[in-house]
Amino acid sequence: MAHRLLKDPLYAQFARIGHAVASPVRIELLDLLAQGEKTVERLAEQTSTNIKNTSAHLRVLRYARLVDTRRTGTYVYYRLADDAVGQFVRDLQRLSRRRLAEVQHVARQFLEDRDDLAPVTLAELKRLVRDGGVTVIDVRPRDEYASGHIPGALSIPLTELKRRMRGLPKRREIIAYCRGPYCVFALEAVTMLRRGGFRARRSEDGWPAWRDAGQRVAAGAATP
């Protein structure tokens, strides 16, 4: 059948992408790389996976052309091949939450049920940033903030928040954002801030949604 000459090799190539994302670790690696490029060592640390296994997962992703690399000295940096890869991962997450009750259960258990205030939607966050009536904090690691962040946001990684809390204004509401809808950094930051007497809420979608919505972005390390 002549049409098989088209379909067999075509669907075999589609399956390369399916194989590449058939591992929880590889999906998490893509999610992390949506924040900015990272070394193998940094990715291994953030996924709690040893360097050898992390490198093997990254080779699979590179074979599927989902990630690219650059070398600086002895370090190899990985990044998403293009913005469409990040969009693909977020679409996969949305589809999973829509179709799989288990995803909804985990999200409720670890995020929604722990927060007694509704998170800030993207539309509300855009309005609050435009009006300038809130303090926005980025609680991701510093390297991710340097790769891209909401203009005017303060870089206060979660690990530094307790020490730096006294420098935040108590008369303004604080909005914390992190990597995306399944990142707990913002929730943990808000919990800590409320215990300290601050008015605080978390962003519902985090950094990728802001960037993908075509909003103005900033880059570069925070001023000490």
Any overview of this molecule?
A 4-stranded parallel β-sheet has the order 5-4-6-7, with helices on both faces. A 3-stranded antiparallel β-sheet has the order 1-3-2. With 224 residues, it is α/β, with parallel strands linked by helices. The longest helix has 19 residues. It contains 11 helices and 7 strands. Helix content is 52%, strand content 13%. It folds into 2 domains: 85 residues, Winged helix-like DNA-binding domain superfamily/Winged helix DNA-binding domain (Arc Repressor Mutant, subunit A), CATH 1.10.10.10; 104 residues, 3-Layer(aba) Sandwich (Oxidized Rhodanese, domain 1), CATH 3.40.250. Strand 6, helix 10 and strand 7 form a beta-alpha-beta unit.
Strand order of the largest sheet: 5-4-6-7
What characterizes the major β-sheet? Answer: 4 strands, parallel
Strand content: 5-15%
From the N-terminal CA to the C-terminal CA, the straight-line distance is: 67 Å
- The fourth-level CATH homologous superfamily of the largest domain is Rhodanese-like domain
CATH topology of the largest domain: Oxidized Rhodanese, domain 1
CATH 2nd-level architecture of the largest domain: 3-Layer(aba) Sandwich
